[in-house]
Design goal:
Blueprint: H1 19-32, H2 45-55, H3 65-83, H4 88-101, E1 107-111, E2 114-120, H5 128-145, E3 152-154, E4 163-165, H6 181-196
Antiparallel strand pairs: 1-2, 3-4
Helix pairs in contact: 1-5, 3-4, 3-5, 4-5
Organism: Mycolicibacterium arabiense
InterPro entries: ABATE, ABATE_dom_sf, Znf_CGNR
Protein name: Zinc finger CGNR domain-containing protein
Length: about 200
């Protein structure tokens, strides 16, 4: 299944950030991880539709190869942001570039399915990658503004390249949900301890 971590499966945060920001950061992680574990999992429009529906993305969908390629391009840009997250200046530069390229223009809205006021950053008629990129760049900007870039992490498992956003209160999360890495590492550590006894 494409979205093993869809909308924060099994992740309980204490709402450190707004609901929109947390959901969008999780959506960015899942998007990035669609080619980091088990090969390309965003090869077809059906997989993109599953991802979009799972996170409640609304607005225009062209459902063509160009749209799929543009979302994969966004995935690559987001992965580059995670890769430099320890360097605040480089991260800010990339987030600002994404905000500029998507022509993000914030406005308040609400929908029957989400009656609370929330921000949209692009028109529902803008291309999909642009709407997604604007929302994700703004969520990243929220992290930067409050000095929490260290919440953007790459899985600590030696055999995993998946990204994660650590929304735990004490920033102690080390492993992604994508490859069952935490459980695998705990089992390996347990077996190593047992072998020494």
């Amino acid at each position: 299944m494409l979205l093993m971590t869809l909308a924060g499966k099994g992740v309980r945060s204490q709402m450190i950030f707004s609901h929109d920001t947390e959901l969008t950061l999780r959506a960015a992680c899942v998007l990035i991880n669609t080619d980091r574990v088990d090969g390309e999992r965003l090869a077809e429009m059906a997989a993109l539709d599953e991802y979009l529906d799972g996170f409640g993305w609304t607005g225009r969908r062209d459902r063509d190869d160009a749209e799929l390629a543009s979302v994969r391009g966004l995935r690559e840009r987001l992965g580059e942001i995670w890769a430099v997250a320890e360097d605040e200046e480089r991260t800010v530069e990339q987030v600002n570039a994404l905000l500029s390229d998507t022509r993000a223009a914030p406005w308040l809205t609400r929908h029957p399915e989400m009656p609370e006021w929330h921000l949209h950053l692009a028109s529902v008629q803008d291309p999909l990658w642009q709407r997604m990129g604007a929302e994700m760049a703004m969520a990243l900007a929220d992290l930067i503004r409050v000095g929490e870039l260290r919440r953007l992490k790459i899985c600590a498992a030696s055999d995993c390249e998946a990204v994660l956003v650590d929304l735990s209160r004490n920033r102690s999360r080390m492993f992604c949900d994508t490859g069952n890495c935490g459980n695998r590492q705990h089992v390996a550590a347990y077996r190593e301890r047992r072998s020494k006894n």
